[in-house]
What does this fold into?
Amino acid sequence: MLSRVADSLYWMSRNIERAENNARVLRVQLIHMLETSSQEVADRDWEEILEVCASASDYYNLYERLDRETLIQYLTISPFNTNSLMNCMNYTRENARSTREILPEGLWEVLNEFHLDQKDWQELPNTREHTQAYLDKVIKTSMTSQGVIESSMSRGTPYTMIKIGKWLERAEKTARILNVTCEKYKKEASASTSTNQYYYWLTALQFLNGYDAYIKEHPPTMESEKVLSFLIKEGRFPRSIRYCMEHVLEAVHKLEGGKVSHYSEDLFQMLELIEDEISRTNIEEMEMESLMEFLDHFQDRCMTLSRMFSETYYLIEPVRVN
Amino acid sequence: MLTNYQTGTFFDEMMKQDGQPKRHYQWFYQLVNQFSERDLMNKHETAQLNFLRQGITFTVYNHTGGTERTMPFDFVPIIIPRHDWEKIEKGMKQRMTALNHFLDDVYDEQRIVEAGIIPRDLIENNPYYYKKQVSGLKVPLNNHIFLAGVDLIRDENGDYRVLEDNLRNPSGMSYVFQNRYVMRQVYPELFFQHSIETLEHQISELHRSVISHLPENADVTSSPTAVLLTPGIYNSAYYDHVFLAQQMGIELVEGRDLTVKDDVVYMKTIRGLKRVDIIYRRIDDDFLDPEAFRPDSALGVSGLLRAYKKGNVSILNGIGNGVADDKAMYVYVPDMIRFYLDEEPIIPNVETYFLSDPEKLDYVLENIDKLVIKNVGASGGYDMLIGPQSEESEREEFKRKIIEKPSQYIAQPTIKLSRAPAYQEGRFYPCHVDLRVFVMNGETTNVLPGGLSRVALKEGSLVVNSSQGGGGKDTWILSEGGDFHA
It folds into this structure.
């Protein structure tokens, strides 16, 4: 397989996963917003959303202050935000377009349909209702894409590249969301009530589409250790850090036919190291401080891993979008 | 349906002057009459959406950037009786053979120049003549033209004539397949009574042609690796590239995916470098290799020409084909047929005047309102004047351009291009059509049955190019005995 093609598949997958995750975060926030009484709390919440979905420093380079409507615009359809839903979906389609000859026709059609409809979205007035519908459409498009991939692609190299992109993106997003939540928890630990704390961890679970799954394992308690342990170490939950990393390792193993060659040695070592670090960590007994360190450290690891992965398979720059 | 349809003074593919369908359209006519107006509208809509949804688009560039557009599809097919098609097929094979001889000759001994048939400076001054790069080179199978897309028109008598030989990078073959596919999906009823030539084996024919061009130093113990080299997703014909690569099962590569080491071409894969034997390129000559052609080309591959010259890789179509298919050399193709094959052309040219001839120049300047003027180096319907449909100011502008550089232009009489009914926006009306025929050459020559019928959907317009509002039609070649149905 061409390196450029592998690269495009990897980035296609990361971008649509990113779009789906960010859309879900926004969807949850738009509902929570209605339940938040104080303006101050609401503003702080949006600050965190920005942190989870994009880069705060990029935002403040463009705008002086955090204004809710501006931010929603920035995160959804702004052309100036590389991680806006619209841009992520455009990158997804462009990457798919440059690899069309090896993707299932159905996948291309799903992405193309979104693109064709997107033109209409941009013309619509910026109302809450339209934003909601747009977020739903992004999520649905991502899920349909995954359905096409799972049901029609052979389990060969292209499929593996797509899955690795998805899992890395997921693991990173989970770490990021937890990091922001821990920070908030720590800052407000003294002042906040147990209701507030309940609400933080509930939100984290909802951001990661894990509420239903969590509740089945842990009837309605919302203890921080339990939630953190679930989202980091639960081997059966498909967005937990452990689940994602185990699957990346498995996929690379498959890609290499179970062998470790000299060129893939570093990559395997790194993957095994990460897995080891996760399994050695006892989440339930950790202080918030060291947990945050752990999450920071893991995000650094993800960056290194992504770089190593690219180097091992000679991946190049993703397709540029004009 | 076609009650108010007027053929006028034009040759009509489907209808006779008395308002009755021609014999080979009889069944089609009856079937269409069974559709209600609503059926027709719905089917039309479904067909257009099909193309859009599948992203079968081409890109049009203007000052605001590129827009992806679909080629409008018209469901009234061009039906060609077996007998007429056989003549076209023969004519195409003859023409390709002569043109291939010419290319071989022009980069070698130049016998045709020695014989005084083609003026030397017409060749030497041709911007697509790459003497320095490829003269004296032996190409695989001695074949320069792996794929040609020859544009045919019919005049007012219904006689086919060649309008252009596209010997460089003819596009549009994917549309032939997609038009047929959509047609079968949306109008299955129409196929029940017709027995037409299938397109099914054509992709394997194409693939066979590609891999028959083995380079001299290919490793014969393993099967050759062929790739399709595209300029990338921003190219207007990108869909064509995707379709052909996918259907032939060869890798679709961009220039940045290839590298040349020790005069061997490799592609960059996730497992390292893999040797490439045959490149079906869809990049123009001057962008192929910055070392040998335009140094500013970001699409090409450095060292490609060296690898080609060493016999380590084949490049299809051959480099330097442009010298044979520009609008000036076109005039000499009938002479090439006589010179190399000692035959008379089966399908004639359209009469063409050179403006470098002062006598002709005067004639053209005086009669510009009756003629078509074309830039010899342009294609796609650009830099072209259609006299009878032009404004005074446009004619003045072209006169100025012609006087300034007469050798850059040719003139042709305005041919009464044949027409066929088109169904758009709820009604049938006559539109001018032409036909691009695809000819594949390898160890044998194969003419794709039918081709891309292009239609100028703007009423009265003569320009069929998709970049200028043209559309496509399915083309049916009736199989043996196919024009008779009990």
